[in-house]
């Protein structure tokens, strides 16, 4: 009952998964990986603040590139607060890696089967999230915003205000045509696939400028749900075919979500 071990297979190169593993406290979240406020207290010691779970102390124990990363995660901000050891192991496999996590020292948090089952369930969900955010065939990114889903929805569905800066023309109706424009990327045509206010907005975009999308065009799904005292906005872009496409789209969506959060802070 003092430790939990879970693993997941990820179809991604070790370098990509390693980049996630070395982010202080990435594994504390509300089901999606979001940017944390991170303050470096000392070499390898960070104060991490999550918008839902608050602040906690993370101490680096070991970094063995692309093989093992270990951290001591405190349940508070002080060095004397209860802590567990969290170890991540990467093992290469055909087509990707196997990511294993071992969390030990659970007795420092209390005893009992309920705690053990809670941590086991949490790590199963956490590793699934890591896979979703690192596999190269899709982009998945998220941001926590300080407003409830209803008010957030109006801004999220106004793509011209935070994503398609050259303009966006569409109606929020299934099957409606879309026209998104960027000065550097041209005009991309699309189709609205699903609208379920205030929680989901999905659409397809043609791979190349000025072409009509077909049924195999990449799919973008934007979801909004309550999280803590605000909302979690998640973008998942699937159907990408090359690593370069994934990199470009990831940078675009991450920048867009940063702008979205700024817009919603102004709206608050």
UniProtKB/TrEMBL annotation:
Annotated ranges, domain Activator of Hsp90 ATPase homologue 1/2-like C-terminal: 11-125
Pfam families from the UniProt entry: AHSA1
InterPro entries: ASHA1/2-like_C (IPR013538), START-like_dom_sf (IPR023393)
Domain of life, per lineage: Bacteria
Membership in a protein family: Belongs to the AHA1 family.
Name assigned to this protein: Activator of Hsp90 ATPase homologue 1/2-like C-terminal domain-containing protein
């Amino acid at each position: 009952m003092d430790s939990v071990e879970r693993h997941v297979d990820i179809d991604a190169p070790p370098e990509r998964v390693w980049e996630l593993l070395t982010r202080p406290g990435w594994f504390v979240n509300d089901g999606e990986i979001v940017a944390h406020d991170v303050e470096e207290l000392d070499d390898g010691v960070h104060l991490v603040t999550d918008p839902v779970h608050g602040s906690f102390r993370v101490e680096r124990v070991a970094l063995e590139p692309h093989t093992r990363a270990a951290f001591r995660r405190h349940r508070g901000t002080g060095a004397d607060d209860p802590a567990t050891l969290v170890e991540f192991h990467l093992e290469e496999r055909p087509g990707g890696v196997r990511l294993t996590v071992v969390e030990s020292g659970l007795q420092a948090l209390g005893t009992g089967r309920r705690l053990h089952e809670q941590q086991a369930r949490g790590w199963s969900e956490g590793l699934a999230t890591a896979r979703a955010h690192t596999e190269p065939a899709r982009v998945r990114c998220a941001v926590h915003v300080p407003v409830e889903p209803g008010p957030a929805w109006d801004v999220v569905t106004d793509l011209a205000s935070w994503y398609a800066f050259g303009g966006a023309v569409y109606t929020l109706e299934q099957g409606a045509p879309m026209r998104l424009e960027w000065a550097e990327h041209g005009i991309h045509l699309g189709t609205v696939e699903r609208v379920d206010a205030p929680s989901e907005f999905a659409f397809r975009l043609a791979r190349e400028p000025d072409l009509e999308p077909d049924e195999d065009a990449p799919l973008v799904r934007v979801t909004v749900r309550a999280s803590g005292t605000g909302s979690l906005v998640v973008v998942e872009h699937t159907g990408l075919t090359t690593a370069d496409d994934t990199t470009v789209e990831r940078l675009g969506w991450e920048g867009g979500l940063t702008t979205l959060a700024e817009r919603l802070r102004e709206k608050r």
